What does this fold into?
Amino acid sequence: MATVFEACIVDTKFLDLVDKVAEKFLKRENGDRVNVVHHNDADGICSASILKALLESLGCEYELICIEKVYPAIVEKIHESRDGIFIYTDLGGLAADMIEKYTKTVSFIIDHHPAKPIESEKVYILDPELAGISGDVFVSASTLNYIFAKRINPDISKYAYIAVLGAVGDYHDRYGGVLGFDRCVLDEAIEFGQVKVKFEGAKERYYIEAFDDFADNIAPKLTTLGACGYLERGYEDAVHVCFNGFNERILKRVKRLEELREKKFKEAIDYLKNGGLQKTKHIQWFDLKDMFNPMGVKAVGEFCELIKDMTFMDMDKYIIGFQWIPPLVPDVGEIDWKGSKVSGRVPTQLGRTILHGKALGLDYLIPKASEMVGGFADATHRLAAAAVVDVGKERDFVEAMERLIEDETAKNS
Ligand SMILES: [Mn+2]
It folds into this structure.
């Protein structure tokens, strides 16, 4: 039977990929335990929730493992103590080689970030980017998981609204409304009476019936639970919320975490204004070390975003922030590696120069610079990017990035 997706899409390369990976999964999943490794923001949490619904419907034994970043020490630790098969979701697209190295059985990567293809009997990637479709614009990880899960069990359609929440969590409504495959899933959610659309000026808002609230109010709370509340396992509440809505206890927790973030961000701004902000020719950077503890490392990215246009910042310099990765990962245990998360952002003015092609984007600079100091880039876009490096390599990273910019400037002059 043709689904709504097939009916409206000319190029079926992506749907063929869904079929191929779903078949591989069904072949492997018989009785095996399934370990779901997912990201800790709203999209990652919604992805995990959709997979949880699928795995329960199949009667699988499963575990949800929430992580912030993919790096060798954590992947090794996840695989060394677990049997069964693995699904990495909303992360891992660029880490297929690393994941293959530690996989004894089979790993699936269901991600919408840029991915590196791999020919392997152990690792299978489902990623729209590998079919020439932008995962940043047209397919959230939760939409992708929804399409995958529904291909295996059509009953998953009762959770279409969770995919809408994830897409909004990743700001896929930034052009006025969700697009592409996100839109196909939205249409299903509307058809099944789960979601209604409200038009507000030039923007659509998605009203989620089960929550009696809008997706753009709900999704940030899921991210707060998962990211600000990472070390206290707030993501477990967030998964619960996807199926049951908020209750008073969880709303209180969200509020407390929002207040914690506000206090920590104020302290960090004071630190930057009082000598914490360092400058090179093209870069302004800072190292927060464990200043944001007990918040997860998404915090440094949100912080860069918050300060990027503040008056004490230079309008024409790249922004690089570092935050230590907590050595104790709640679902995984103590990690035998000291890492620092790198967040890159740009002030709006420099952003315009980059979009006009007159300055290098972070999608080039961050992966290159992290490679030069032995680190790993993960999520990379032109105006926002992240990586991990060894603690102690922060200054080397900034110098490497500065050299890359200098080389480019010399080429063009
Ligand atoms: Mn995502």
Notes: The chain has two domains: 4-215, 261-412. The pocket of manganese (II) ion is lined by residues 43, 90, 112, 140-141, 170 (CB under 6 Å).
